[in-house]
Amino acid sequence: MKKIHFCAGLPRSGSTVLMNILQQNPQIFTTGTCALTPVVSDLIIKSRFNESFQAMNTEDADNAVYGMVQGATQGWFEGLTSKPVVISKNRGWAKLHHLYPNSKIIVTVRDLRDIVESFDKINLRIKSLHTFGDDGKSYGCMCEDEKYHYHFQTSNSLSDSLYTDMNRLMHLWLNTSDKVRFIRYEDLVSNPDEVLKEVYDFIGVEWFNHDLNNIQQSTIFEHDNAYFREKTSHVVKPQLVNNSKSTRNLSQKFHNKVVSEHKWFYDGFYPNPQY
Known about the structure:
Blueprint: E1 3-9, H1 15-22, E2 28-33, H2 36-48, H3 51-54, H4 58-78, E3 85-89, E4 105-109, H5 112-126, H6 144-152, H7 162-174, E5 180-184, H8 185-190, H9 192-203, H10 252-260, H11 263-269
Parallel strand pairs: 1-3, 1-4, 2-3, 4-5
Helix pairs in contact: 2-4
């Protein structure tokens, strides 16, 4: 039986590069954004509306569904890899990992200001004006107040937004346990060996010496379509690079608003935020 763990967190927070580093270990199989997660979510939801399940004792029905989910998950990864340890990445695991009592979840976070700046840079790089807000305005034409609303105050129809991801993260933060480990992007890129040792201790796997100067894209390619219609490659660079705070497009007023309106996040992860 495989040891299965999970990785969730915020977008643009280093989860993809972390998975590709860990995949260098011949004992560990990691995923890109795992397609199993929505399957599990749909299964849980649909079982609640199934007449046969509704006729069962509630505790028996729950145990049956959870047992089926755990067995299906094992079968899913048996079909994908012979490696004994799996780390499945999908931000949706934040609300589902409790279904797996023997699993742990790694949660990557990053300064919210740099996440939004990262998406701004993507938009500028691909010259895209095809991502629309609630009022039909393209992202590239939004003022800063509209961008703030788009990222933090609405669950946009294109896919998950920071609004959704912050709700998931708060759920994990408020229900943290020894099965949850938060990893800051800034620590990963500045002290990768220290962070990797922390991860290995957390999941209970013997240490492996990673080649951090030759990180290859070994998981499936991902796409930067969390906020944009265009699907540009989520390419992993061969070496860790800290891109935070290099250049910023958004104003200090915007950054101050992000910090002040997400006090719980900054108190917990970045207690002395600097512009």
